Amino acid sequence: MRLAAVIFVLALGLRLALIAALPVMPYGDAWTRLAHAEEWIVPPWLPTYGWVVHLISLVAPGPLPARILTGLLGALAAAITTRLGLVPALGVALSPAIVLPGIAVYPESLALLAAVAALVHLDRPRFAASCLLVACLTRYDPWLLAPLLAWTVRRDRVAVALTFAGPAAWMMWNAGGPSVTTHLDVSVSPGRLVEQVRIWRGLVPWWIGWPAVVAALVGLARLRSGPKPLVILVIWAAIWTLFVAVARPYSPLDNARQLVVPALAVAALAGHGASRYPRATWIVALTVLTPAAWAYEAAAEWYDRPAPRSAAALAAAIPSNAGVVLVLEAGVERWPGATTGACQVVDALRPDLEVRCEDTAPAARAAYVLRISPDPHPVDAIVATWPLTEVTRAGDAVLFRVGR
Q1: Which of 17, 181, 202, 203 is paired with 328 by a 20 to 30 Å CA distance?
Q2: Given this model, what pLDDT does residue 183 score?
Q3: Domain ranges of the chain
């Protein structure tokens, strides 16, 4: 209990410090989740984390409360991971692969908390299955864990039913709706696997650290003597790794979020590899810290990008009675039901405005125009035809008032 408390304080302190140091999230669906915070369910996202964001937004809207709550969930995940050992607990507490998604409005922390709770409570099949139900309704990667857990608790029919209840309920409820399969780029080929290995080889020093990987290889050699939760975790991570290589659910391909499950497995294997030698356990535990300095320096560059920071600054400068605000931006990433980019930053920060996300043609009723991106810009021809008066600018973003 004392170790869990220490790990919790360490994990929460790091997350809060990073949230304070990096106040503006980078572009991505974290902003889109905030922009849809008033909705209970936004397919193809699974609902559980959306409920968390919705409830916290009712009490305290905006990105900061949601980020702090997500950090708290990550710290709880680190604390409960002490049941797997000191090294994996430190991995969840400190590994950039796990911490970085845990300081934005992303569901990985809640999914990890529920999945680890399931793994460490295998002696209570129905409770473990209930935890996995939460995980499966939070992220899609725990769906790959469901068959493994179902086989482990196969003597309890209720527990088996609960392990598959999440995926089954979601597929029935969302039948015909937006599907996560629209993001997949499935291809089984040696070239695809080689490319993924090359990508991960570049990521490992930054997000996990080679010393922990070397220690994990020792643990992998001793896996047959490992506890059942560790064996299940490693198999889950292996299946997930193969799925990422074959289906590519993330864009860009070096997205750190794909490393959450493998990072936990590597840390757990590293701890198992050193378990015969108590002193070595502490040495291996310290190797979890080796990538931290340069990884978090890179993370600061990832988070502190000019465009999101500029969009957030100009969003605050728009008058409350502005009405319709048009955000013009090139290279906007679109997918069913959402748009990621500066538009979502403004939409999330200014729910009092009617924000239009356009990158080809202007909206007729716009009172203000927010133009993003450095010169030259594909929307310059559109902007040139409007009677616009520059109000203010921040970095590469300019706020115009539409003249009438």
Answers
A1: 181
A2: 59
A3: 2-302, 306-402
